[in-house]
């Protein structure tokens, strides 16, 4: 097995080490980003929904930038929403601030019952430069 090329955003490595997962793995020209939530630096949820969504995107963008990428390079998005029927409209008012111009990435939205105290999570795959060759 080849060594995983892990990408960490600045200042959040301890959080990922504590929870035992990689925030993103670069492989074969792609960046596979773990689900990002609206967590504060200590890992606790941002209580207000719009602020939580913005922080989730900010956390995502921190990883993308650490990989030399941006949201413009994202090709596939999966979002998880607790109680989407009541929260979708509020979430989708914030999303265009980060989404960029068309053509947009593919999207899968999944309604869930629990996200460890969060209401929104975003997971992406982006096209990036591969520094490992594998």
Automatic annotation (TrEMBL):
One of its GO terms (cellular component) is cytosol. Pfam families: Ribonuc_L-PSP. It comes from the Bacteria. One of its GO terms (molecular function) is deaminase activity. InterPro entries: RutC-like_sf, YjgF/YER057c/UK114, YjgH-like. PANTHER family: 2-IMINOBUTANOATE/2-IMINOPROPANOATE DEAMINASE RIDA, RUTC FAMILY PROTEIN YJGH. This is Enamine deaminase RidA. It comes from Pollutimonas thiosulfatoxidans. The lineage of its organism: Bacteria, Pseudomonadati, Pseudomonadota, Betaproteobacteria, Burkholderiales.
């Amino acid at each position: 097995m080849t060594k995983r090329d892990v990408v960490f955003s600045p200042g959040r490595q301890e959080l990922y080490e504590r929870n035992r997962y990689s925030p993103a793995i670069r492989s074969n020209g792609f960046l596979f980003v773990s689900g990002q939530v609206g967590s504060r630096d200590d890992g606790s949820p941002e209580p207000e929904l719009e602020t939580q969504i913005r922080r989730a995107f900010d956390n995502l963008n921190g990883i993308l930038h650490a990989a030399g990428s941006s949201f413009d390079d994202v090709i596939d998005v999966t979002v998880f929403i607790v109680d989407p029927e009541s929260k979708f409209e509020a979430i989708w008012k914030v999303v265009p601030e980060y989404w960029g111009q068309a053509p947009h990435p593919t999207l899968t939205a999944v309604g869930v019952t629990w996200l460890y105290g969060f209401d929104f999570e975003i997971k992406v795959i982006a096209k990036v430069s591969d520094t490992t060759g594998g």
